[in-house]
Amino acid sequence: MVFAFVLCVLCLVVPGALIASAARMRAFDVVAVAPALSVACVGLSAMLGGVVGVPWGWWLPLGLGALIALILVFVPLGRSRRRGQHVRRGGDWVAWGGLVFGAALGAIQMVAAIGNMSSFSNTFDNTFHLNAVRFIIDNGNASPLFVGSMNAGDGPSFYYPSAWHAIAAVLVQVTGVSVPVATNVLSIVVVCMVWPLSLILLARALSSNRFSWLFAGVLSSAFAVFPLLLLRHGVLYPNILGIAILPAALGLIVWALRGTPLTGATRSQGMVLGALAAGGTALGHPNAVLSLIVLAAPAVLARVIWLVARLIRWKRQPHPAGAATPATRTGTVAEAVIFLVLLGAIPFLWGAMRFDTVEPYRLIQVPVGEAILRTLGMAPLRYTISTFSVIAIVASMLVLLIRRKHLWLILSYAVLAFLYVAGVSMPWEARDAITGLWYNDMYRITALFPVIGIPLIATAAGELCSLLSRSLARRASRDAPSDVEARDIRRLTRRVVSPAAACVVVVGLLVPAFAATSMREGERDAAWAFNTYDDSQIVTPDELAVMQHVTDVVPEGDTVMVNPWTGAAMTYGLTGRKTSSYHLLETQTAPMAYLAKNLDFAYEDPLVCQYVRENDAYYVLDFGVTEALGESHRDEYGGLLGLEESGVAQTVYSAGDAKLLRIVACPQ
């Protein structure tokens, strides 16, 4: 188990760290940006390996990371400024402190939610996720162009973001842990390490204020909306990975737009690494890169406004001190035009990536006022709106407005608010046009609020702490007999006041955040998802007991016939025995579809036994007629019912009403 955690950290850090080091990043930033770059290496190497036929393994992303690093060694990206290096060496411990705090709080949350490490999320989408990990291991192919074939039946494969599953497969291959354990290890590492690192990197890109770095890490697990929400609803593991690295990609874009001289990053570093991180975000989940585009657009707009204002100043003052050269003016115009073109391309990209959706039978309609309040409180539907969150977001916006800093963060949050209001309050045609790229799933959009909300709060709180520290230092040195003594008093006061102020703010933020009713609701829902109950819609305790005995009865290589809507399809991910279906939403192969519909006619229909023998499908999991979401699929899977009564099969193991049957109508 410990080895699995160590290997997971290495998979998410080493390939990206090689690239970041070759790009001349320094110290903390190398580690902070590494997961986003590593995910890019995982996704891209899996795709390339699938194309050329190289079996999937840990060496593929490592090799690709080393290759990219070797190329970047010869690319003139520029080096960090000496001033920035000084700040970096003196202040990195604050960033590391934020990581430690965030990791500890995240670990407490995740352990409480998951419970036993062999537990699994008993939710709709986890049937696919566990099976996809097993599918990669069995086939040696983790390409996003291949993994979709698991559910494609006899048709062509489709693209599915498989970076999460590829990493989990490596953990199983190397350490021998089960698929659920590997999934839980990866979840914990992403939440406790990748997510706070990513937030701290964005905070460092925004400001050299060390307080904000600390607060960004500390607040990483202070809101139920992420990651707890996506552990309950879905479960959406690829989205969790994509959102966890999204702030890092956004931070690199900020560096690319304006550089961060006080922390030593150059624009060229931001451009190169930002492109790679955006690719990693896309390979984590396409929703994440769409979210990145939406959230980065206000930052790009702010840069365009700054460039235009600069050109206007030059025009009004043609000969100021340090006047711009013609080349500088041309470069400024070109940069503004490029960014305007990129902004103008977003609506076309939006239209090109839209896909057909179906209006739900029951359309949720929330009053606009409540929807806006939920955006400020980072509260999903059916969760209590946190007064603390509302106050923290509004107060942070006011602080940044008064200080006139990072105003684009406010606009980015407003964009998220617009998406949410559109998705729960507008008529179907409008909401589908606006939020269809997120499958009109408000949980996916709600989970994005902390990506901007946490840096917003952290930056504003950092500003207030700095103002308080400087103000107290000035007052303490007011009566000093000399300037030298006044400077010493100010320095000493700041050294005492700054840590004290930081501690007070940390406590002041965390206590109400974790005491909020919405946090308890999120923790309760996440813990519920990782347990089995008699009324569970996916897997009940009796059904789990039967699945755990499948390997004792079913020979390796045989196929177990299942109705996936009863939860039986999860057998493949949990045990390694092949099943006739791998997900509830699937396209079956023609033989499997025929058997699922007609197996009970084995004595009358010779084609049934022919398909049974051809596919070694001699076993059936009979989990009754209760299906997930109250659905009924008797037309598709009715042939798997009543097999004992018709004499087609006999029970070989049972627990409660759940049974494992062996087909006797078709002798081998």
Structure notes:
- 65% of the residues lie in helices and 3% in strands.
- The chain has helices at 2-22, 27-52, 59-73, 82-114, 126-139, 163-175, 179-206, 210-218, 228-232, 237-258, 267-284, 286-316, 326-353, 368-377, 387-403, 407-425, 428-435, 442-446, 449-476, 483-515, 517-529, 541-548, 550-553, 571-575, 590-598, 606-614, 634-637, and strands at 559-561, 578-579, 619-622, 649-655, 658-663.
- It is mainly alpha-helical.
- Strands 2-1-3-5-4 form a 5-stranded mixed beta sheet.
Tally of helical segments: 27
| Strand proportion | under 5%
Number of strands: 5
Range of helix content: 55-70%
- List the uncertain runs: 80-89
Task: Supply Rg.
Answer: 28 Å
Span between N and C termini?
41 Å
Structural class: mainly alpha
Q: Can you summarize the main beta sheet? A: 5 strands, mixed
What oligomeric state do the depicted chains represent?
single chain
Shape: elongated
Please tell me the overall pLDDT: 88
Order of the strands making up the biggest sheet: 2-1-3-5-4
Please sum up the structure shown.
With 668 residues, the chain is mainly alpha-helical. Helices cover 65% and strands 3% of the residues.
